[in-house]
Amino acid sequence: MNSHLRxxxxxxxGIRQWVLRESAAPAEVSPEVDTTQPxxxxxxxxxxxxxxQAQVAGCTRCALHATRxxxxxGTGNRSADWLVIGEAPGADxxxxxxxxxxxxxxxxxxxxxxAGPGREAVYITNILKCHPPNNRDPQSDEVASCHSYLERQxxxxxxxxxxxxxxxxxHNLLQTxxxxxxxxxxxxxxxxxxxxxxxxxxxxxxxxxPLEKRKSWDDLQLALQISNGQ
Length: 230
Ligand code: URA
Hints:
Blueprint: H1 3-14, H2 49-57, E1 75-76, E2 82-86, H3 91-96, H4 103-115, E3 123-126, H5 140-157, E4 161-165, H6 167-174, H7 180-183, E5 187-190, E6 195-200, H8 203-208, H9 213-227
Parallel strand pairs: 2-3, 2-4, 4-6
Antiparallel strand pairs: 1-3, 5-6
Helix pairs in contact: 1-4
The protein binds uracil.
Residues 86-90, 93, 99-100, 102, 104-105, 126, 166 line the site of uracil (URA).
């Protein structure tokens, strides 16, 4: 590995002044929601991008629709080589309607710039299209409800590589509960098409554990090799 490049990458991401602060934002309150409504993971059919985006925008398949500000569909290059899949929108993403725009998102953008193809070259979405209150983990019914939207996004992008960012994305895409530390560093395959899939740490985790950034550099280098056909 080129140590100069790596140092640049670490400098870009090491960002010592990025000290975690206690959030001043008040805890979000989960309003009463009707959990008796039917949850569906029905296929979405074969909509094109605008039709799929409209379906997601109007989705009421799970209870999260009652607490979201808006859905967060995905963003980026719809013909990308890389499809980056995170967990779920956070509070910033819920407000802005775009994935990975908060502090973790800024670090992901740095990672993609320094060790990957750049944020503008990839398509980014999440396992869930709605923000779970208080950033709690997605529930299995919510993941099931959202699954066909993600499947259709994967069909439409036809990526050469999926980068699963963090535990929730990795576990749901690979149907495993193996820790991320043991899933990263090698190539998996997703779905009937066997799309190469690389797991890396979630940038929110890297903000808390900066020493792990070296490993995320290696993961992105591995992903680059695969998407370049090496
Ligand atoms: N974390 C995620 O996993 N996705 C986002 O969009 C933002 C934060």
